[in-house]
Design goal:
Blueprint (H helix, E strand, L loop, with lengths): L1 E8 L2 E5 L2 E5 L8 H34 L45 E2 L5 E3 L4 H11 L1 H22 L4 E10 L5 E4 L2 E4 L4 E14 L2 H68 L5 H36 L6 E2 L14 H11 L1 H21 L5 E11 L13 E11 L7 H67 L5 H36 L13
Length: 539
Amino acid sequence: MHRENVFAGSPKTSAVGGKALTTGSIYQYFSPPVLHTLILTLLFCLAAVCQTAAAEGEGMVIASETPGFEGNTVSATNESKSPTASDTDEIIPEFDPADLWKDFSEPPVLKTDENGRILLHDVNIGDILKIALLRNRQVNAAAQRIDQANGQVLQARSLLGTRMTGNFSQTRVDDVAKSISGGKTIDLGKRDSQTAYVEVTQPLFLSGKDQSTLNSARLGRSIAGSGDFLTRQSILLETTLHWLSWLFAGEAEKVSEKNLELAQAHHDLVKARFQHKQVSQFEVLRAEVRLAQARSDLRKQINTRELACLDLLRILDLPEDTEVTSGERLKMIKASIDPVRDASEAIELREDLRMKRLEVKIAREAIASARSENQPVVSLFGQTGVQDPSSKSSMGNYERKGYWRAGIVANFTLSDGGMRKGRIKEADSRLALAENALHENIEQAKIEIRKASLNIETAEEVVTSQREALKQAEEALRLAGVRYKNGLFTQVELFDAENAYLLTRLQYLQAIHSYHQAVASYHLATGKLGREILVRAVN
């Protein structure tokens, strides 16, 4: 049903002494074109002011609701209160990336050599993580999704604001009615006519549907902010794992270099003993085979380190020829964890759980929107313009007339055939699904934290056992070397002792590598990755 109450006004004219006079109208002071120009200008200015104010007010909300929004100092205290339950939408404290790196130096400047090759010399884990957050394409894409959500909020907000429209039309007809008078043909109408107007509409009373749409858009923006934070956390984790792999590959390369050194020394010793006829030619050949194998193993480890560096550069979005060096070495640093406490805190810290809570709120807004489906919408409107008349005036010409009108429009639905009831039922079901998903994700988060803590415990036990095994292997290698020089050990026994030592050393480094991987994954599972100073896995 549509009801319109219109108040319209137009000048009244009368002919006196062959002249058209305007009575009871401001047209007696201003010519119609001038007056209409003034009215249109005022309307345009009013609309521009309204739109500017709305955009400025919306900007405050954007800054306060977006996690990871850098440089935010504006609060949300000026935001108008929503009449729905979503007014209490939680605000996540703004995330300052600088808080991550309190113990780290400033990010390195990307220097280049004379050929334009980027040089990352003597960098640490803090430098690498900062570069990842600044350059990674996934992080940049997540920021674009926040901008998208901001645009959706502005679109939803426009439904509640002042709207101004304009129209201009130029019309020509192929023929007009004619009359013959005194032997002359006279046109009774105009072939060409123009109409122009500007209309301003201001909502006075809106249904809850439009407000719920705005609330849902704001919640969607918060979800985009959480998604941005999750992306950052994912990149931090992936970068950390690639960095650890690169460091481990470097350590494995050093083990291979040591293996080559031992093989070369043993080869030289065997050759010397062969010259004194203390060993057979067979032992010399065996030493040469081992030396060749050691060189091959070193080449493989060099390739592994280079591949690990390529993986690291990919996530940093740096060229493949970038040169990376670091003084950091893998070191066992025990992490301090409390699975019970961390699981409890994770309910609030994990951004994926926050997203699920926001989805529950969006589902509630959908219910509010469905329930207010048939509420009336009342608006005030005003229109002014000029138009050509369809017939001549009393003065015998066509006079372009200005006009204005104002009114109130009310739109409401008396019956929708059950549409509202069906939408409410659908929205109720979506809310139940969202609440179930939230509950399942909370329980899944607890399980992930428990598994991550068990992985840390297991990895720590492996490190401890491998450390003891390494000590034993070192001692066994020392004794084997002494006995071989004294002729108490065969070449094969010495080989076995050297291989056992190198293998044990590599396993020990692998255990440290796995331990730090488990710790990094634990921080992600608890939601703390990126929120606190990261535990340094290297020294």
